[in-house]
Amino acid sequence: MAEFIPVPPFDLVVFGATGDLSLRKLFPSLLHRFVDGQIPPQSRIIGVARSEMDTSAFRQMVHEAHLKFAPKDHIDEAKCAEFLKHVEYARVDATAPASEWGALKDALANGNGNVRIFYLSTAPSLFVTIAQRLAETALATPTSRIVLEKPIGRDLASSRGINDGVGAVFDEQRTFRIDHYLGKETVQNLLVLRFANMLVEPIWSRATIDHVQITVAEELGVEGRADYYDKSGALRDMVQNHMLQLLCLVALESPNSMDADAIRTEKLKVLSALRRIGPGDVASKTVRGQYKAGLVDGAKAPAYAEEVGKASRTETFVAIKAEVDNWRWAGVPFYLRTGKRMGARRSEIVIQFKDTPVPIFGAGAGAPNKLVLRLQPDEGVRLWLNMKEPGPGGLRIKTAPLDLSFAEEFNVRYPDAYERLLMDVVRGNLSLFMRRDEVDAAWTWADALLAAWDASGAEPYLYAAGSNGPTQSAVLLDRDGRAWWDPE
Ligand code: BG6
To answer: How far is the CA of 120 from the centre of ligand 1 (A)?
Structure first.
């Protein structure tokens, strides 16, 4: 069992408790922390939703989710039953007046100093209303915390509205804006790799790096979220948050410490240096795509338009050439690419180094070094180096990886990102959560791009489900004499 830092007893209220995220991620993550003994026995977890049901029906729902989503070798009926004793249900309509919030008040009675957390896993349009009700009912205490799931709005204006409204009740130090990519092991490891190893930092700049690629490819389509997704699209759903956060961690300067604001200030500087993409360069720096029917993993997958039940211009794929205008990164493109219904689920960051200045082993011998950080699946780090192929008869160069597969190196179960993040909220550690000014900066950049796309009126390119996205995505790099790293 991995070591963990104990947390104080807590009361966690999950709004949107019957939703997909809650059942698929939040409750299973809490169960894992419980099984590992990290959740103190006095803690309570209160699911809140509009559905008419009682605690035992809700427990049943969480139990079924455990059976459905947990890997077969992690199903533990006895532990799950123990865990469920800490789970209650309060039926509350978040839009109802404060006088109708009695069920939650009752559930939170006798808190005995437990850390109080409100997790808003609902549509962002409810965030402000819920915060207001929590103030009116006095359930929000001066020390209670709020967790906001992404997306925080759909543009800068709506995100500011949410942050203002929520901020009127919960100050910044008590607001945890979650981006679950920051809870992924390899993502955190990026900071360790960069700042705990002397040999990495001196080569981490335009002097030696040619370009960076960040790919987040999914096999899944829009699943049951067509309504949300069609209004959102890949830029709002994945790039404005997850991908920009990954870019920030690759690009940031060394923070003075691991203090939350030290890290977040450095991320903000990167976001502020991100060059805006306007109408003049959307065509040369971005590609929007949408999947048509195809085969994913040998199974037929319908077209996006069929899944959402109408013709749509929403992008399910996006590729972007992003540029960071600062001394470290000037001239080093960050190619970002994300898409649904692609050939394989694969998220990785590729740091592509420059070629050696003089090819003393002959032109084309070996390949420029590459550092590949695999986020999922099979978390790990691979550094591709050129070596001499053993044997007599000439000097042949072979490119081979130095491979650090986390699963083999560290014999531990890989926790879900939410496990780490939920416990960080209880501990009050904001390092892996987005500060308000970061969200503003990310939206400012995304808004400019969205406006440029709108102005262009261009339709997304179609790509077959199960492919690597539209061919224009390959052209984006080809134009610069580069190519995506797509290992077989
Ligand atoms: C979510 C997006 O934030 O991240 C989803 O809303 C996406 O559309 C998901 O599928 C991807 O997360 P992960 O952890 O499976 O890569």
So the answer is: 17
DSSP 3-state assignment of 460? Answer: coil
DSSP state of 332: -
What's this model's pTM, rounded to 2 decimal places? Answer: 0.95
Asked whether residue 85 carries a pLDDT value surpassing 80, the answer given is: yes
Q: Is 237 in the pocket of ligand 1 (CB under 6 A)?
A: yes
pLDDT digits (tens, 9 = 90+) for 454-483: 999 999 999 999 999 999 999 999 999 999
Average pLDDT of span 123-147: 96
User: According to the CATH classification, is domain 182-478 in 3.30.360.10?
Assistant: yes
User: Letter for the amino acid at 202?
Assistant: P
Q: Which CATH superfamily is domain 10-149 in?
A: NAD(P)-binding Rossmann-like Domain (3.40.50.720)
Which pLDDT score, from 0 to 100, does residue 369 have?
97
3-class SS letters over 118-180: EEECCCHHHHHHHHHHHHHCCCCCCCCEEEECCCCCCCHHHHHHHHHHHHCCCCHHHEEECCH
> Ligand 1 pocket check: which of 25, 154, 179, 218 to mutate, most ligand atoms within 8 Å of Cβ?
218
Report the interhelical angle of 417-427 vs 27-35 (nearest 10°): 80
Residue 415: strand, helix, or coil: coil
Q: What is the mean pLDDT of residues 435-444?
A: 97
